[in-house]
């Protein structure tokens, strides 16, 4: 090579022709070189779809996005939620009423669970009608059916976590159904509840199932389902051979991706609007001793709820175990029962007709349940009253627990500030929620919290007065010493075991507090004096006409005090008795009795009276315009009605 050839410079025009990649191109090349992202995207998006993109194929992608939404909203809720009976309800109330966008997030999570059930059912029906389970897709179909059961399990376990009356009742009924399984039913029920009754172990186990165990199985099944789908490939339209489809194929990207994203945005938009304009309500705290509450499950469990009504006695096992198990097994084994390659639904009348009959039966059962409730005046009135209480509680201001909740269950320490610092709209201190503590010493209060949280009241009653399931505990002071009582709680006798009494798991100070509370039952104490506000001297809204509710020797209707008598005058003067009946015992279906008002705190009753809900207004209830003192008197009288009508 000559000197001239070695010193030749690059051609400027050739250098200008080779353009340097853009920054975005260099960044993507850098990522792809280290992760193989380009190949992953191509493998994911270049899936061939026989027959081309269709709106019928949108359900799988929608399910995946809804599940991601459930994970995100669930994590946000779990930050504040506490899985313990003493604080579960108040933690949810704090989320809904105090946390920024808390009500929206909880509503989005709740509506999302219903959306998952709806979209998953539509996906399975579309797969059935298209015969997409044929052609070596048996495991693909079975994994989808298993995902449906897991989604229903997520809905059931999550429903209990708010620990309001509706959730508690649904959890109790659901676990009772599980107990009907032959041979192992009782063991399964005790395993899920953590004992013979619903309590602290129940809510902790449901929480673990809801946030860890079931989601783990769902993640694994989703990965398996996607892998099986990629292995078998898309089945295509119903007129295509399921084994070797010969229809012209179209890639998943971009048309099907655009169709899927449009549907996903539509679903998420609808869920967002529902969460914003129709937020999910929160009921009053669970009270195991409330025998008046009528439980009604969510819509997807309502057919099963109605189905249970038709089976009694020894036939219960057939109706709620054998028949559902047979139907579930038939659905799972459908690909093995329908082995032909014919996919058009009108050419497969037996499997398609059988599934449509089951779906139609479920719809009929759900509608029948609603019709029966609306035709029974007493049931309709009770359900309307429960709805009123739930809506009113959801609209009322947040009140942290002091020592005890209205139902006597344990309270929690304030989540935002000490209770003494909280103020109502009128500037007075918030009403006390320790309405059942009149006959308990300060030392016994923690014990009463444990007594209620562990579900002891379900058998022994509020205040230990006894029920048909458990004996009266008010005379324990005369029968057992604290040491003997401690021993029998930890080691129940054979007779106690036979009656369903489990060993008490509390230890240390908790056990000492429980023993102190049991020792205090039946001990007469003086009711606290009438509270007054500091500013006006008028009786406070936290007046405790219910203070004698826990007394065990009530023999006559309690007498009204001055403020309750003033409230009765206001009650009669405003014509409340025209709808609610004399003494508030109930006059019409639209205006039920007031004997359940004891479960609502005074602030909640005040909110309901000043701002009636839509359902109350439809029944003819106008807003009550009274001064603060008059309103306190009316609320005291309504609370007195509850106590006096429940007194033996």
Supply the number of helical segments: 28
Q: Determine the strand fraction and express it as a percent band.
A: under 5%
- Helix content percent band: 55-70%
Gross geometry: globular
Structure class: mainly alpha
CATH homologous superfamily name of the largest domain? Answer: Cytochrome Bc1 Complex, Chain C
Q: The CATH topology of the largest domain, please?
A: Cytochrome Bc1 Complex, Chain C
Briefly, what CATH class of the largest domain? Mainly Alpha
**Rg from alpha-carbon coordinates:** 31 Å
Question: Largest beta sheet: what is the strand line-up?
Answer: 1-2
Uncertain residue ranges? 402-444, 525-556
Mean pLDDT: 78
CATH architecture of the largest domain: Up-down Bundle
N- to C-terminal separation? 119 Å
Tell me the domain tally.
3
Number of strands: 2
SSE pattern, N- to C-terminal: HHHHEHHHHHHHEHHHHHHHHHHHHHHHHH
Give a quick account of the main beta sheet: strands, pairing sense, barrel closure.
2 strands, antiparallel
């Amino acid at each position: 090579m000559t000197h001239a050839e070695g010193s030749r410079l690059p051609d400027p025009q050739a250098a200008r022709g080779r353009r340097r990649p853009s920054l975005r191109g260099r960044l993507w090349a850098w990522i792809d070189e280290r992760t193989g992202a380009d190949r992953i995207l191509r493998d994911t998006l270049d899936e061939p779809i026989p027959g081309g993109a269709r709106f019928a194929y949108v359900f799988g992608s929608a399910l995946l996005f809804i599940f991601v939404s459930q994970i995100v909203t669930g994590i946000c809720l779990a930050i504040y939620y506490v899985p313990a009976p003493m604080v579960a309800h108040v933690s949810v109330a704090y989320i809904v009423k105090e946390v920024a966008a808390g009500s929206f997030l909880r509503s989005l999570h709740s509506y999302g669970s219903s959306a998952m059930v709806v979209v998953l059912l539509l996906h399975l029906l579309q797969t059935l009608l298209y015969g997409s389970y044929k052609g070596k897709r048996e495991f693909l179909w079975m994994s989808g059916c298993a995902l449906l059961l897991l989604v229903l399990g997520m809905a059931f376990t999550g429903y209990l976590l708010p620990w309001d009356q509706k959730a508690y009742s649904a959890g109790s009924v659901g676990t009772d159904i599980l107990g009907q399984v032959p041979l192992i039913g009782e063991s399964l029920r005790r395993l899920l509840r953590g004992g013979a009754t619903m309590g602290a172990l129940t809510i902790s186990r449901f929480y673990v199932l809801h946030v860890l165990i079931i989601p783990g199985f769902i993640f694994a099944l989703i990965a398996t389902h996607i892998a099986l789908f990629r292995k078998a490939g898309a089945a295509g339209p119903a007129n295509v051979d399921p084994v070797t489809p010969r229809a012209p194929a179209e890639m998943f990207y971009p048309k099907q991706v655009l169709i899927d994203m449009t549907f996903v945005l539509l679903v998420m938009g609808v869920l967002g609007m529902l969460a914003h304009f129709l937020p999910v309500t929160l009921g009053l705290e669970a009270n195991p001793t409330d025998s008046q509450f009528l439980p009604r499950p969510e819509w997807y469990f309502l057919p099963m709820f109605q189905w249970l009504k038709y089976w009694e006695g020894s036939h219960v096992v057939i109706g709620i175990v054998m028949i559902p198990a047979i139907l579930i097994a038939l659905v799972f084994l459908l690909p093995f029962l329908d082995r032909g390659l014919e996919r058009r639904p009108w050419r497969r009348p037996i499997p398609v007709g059988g599934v449509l009959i089951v779906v139609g039966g479920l719809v009929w059962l759900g509608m029948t349940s609603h019709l029966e409730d609306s035709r029974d005046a007493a049931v309709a009135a009770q359900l309307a009253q429960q709805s009123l209480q739930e809506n009113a509680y959801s609209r009322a201001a947040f009140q942290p627990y002091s020592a005890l909740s209205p139902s006597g269950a344990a309270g929690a320490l304030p989540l935002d500030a000490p209770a003494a610092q909280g103020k109502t709209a009128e500037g007075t201190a918030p009403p006390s929620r320790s309405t059942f503590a009149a006959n308990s010493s300060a030392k016994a209060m923690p014990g009463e919290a444990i007594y209620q949280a562990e579900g002891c009241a379900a058998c022994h009653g509020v205040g230990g007065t006894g029920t048909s399931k458990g004996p009266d505990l008010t005379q324990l002071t005369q029968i057992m010493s604290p040491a003997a009582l401690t021993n029998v709680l930890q080691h129940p006798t054979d007779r106690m075991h036979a009656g369903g009494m489990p060993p008490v798991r509390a230890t240390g100070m908790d056990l000492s507090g429980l023993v102190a509370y049991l020792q205090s039952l039946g001990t007469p104490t003086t009711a606290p004096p009438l509270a007054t506000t500091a500013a006006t001297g008028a009786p406070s809204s936290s007046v405790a006409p219910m203070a004698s509710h826990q007394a065990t020797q009530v023999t006559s209707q309690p007498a009204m005090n001055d403020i309750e008598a003033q409230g009765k005058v206001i009650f009669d003067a405003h014509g409340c008795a025209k709808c609610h009946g004399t003494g508030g015992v109930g006059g019409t279906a639209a205006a039920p009795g007031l004997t359940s008002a004891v479960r609502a705190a005074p602030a909640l009753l005040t909110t309901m009276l000043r701002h009636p809900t839509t359902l109350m207004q439809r029944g003819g209830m106008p807003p009550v315009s009274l001064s603060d003192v008059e309103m306190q008197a009316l609320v005291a009288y309504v609370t007195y009605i509850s106590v006096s009508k429940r007194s033996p």
